Amino acid sequence: MSARELVVLGTASQVPTRHRNHNGYLLRWDGEGILFDPGEGTQRQMLRAGVAAHDINRICVTHFHGDHSLGLAGVIQRINLDQVPHPVTAHYPASGQHFFDRLRYSTAYRETVKLTEAPADTDGPLATTAAYTLDTHRLSHPVESYGYRLTEPDGRRMLPAKLAEHGIKGPDVGRLQREGALGGVTLADVSEHRRGQRFAFIMDTRLCDGVHALAEGCDLLVIESTFLDEDRRLAADHGHLTAAQAAAVAREAGVRHLVLTHFSQRYPDPEAFEAEARGAGYEGGLTVAEDLMRVPVPSRHP
Question: For a Cys-Cys bond, which of 105, 135, 149, 279 suits 200, CB 3.0-4.6 Å?
Answer without folding.
Answer: 149
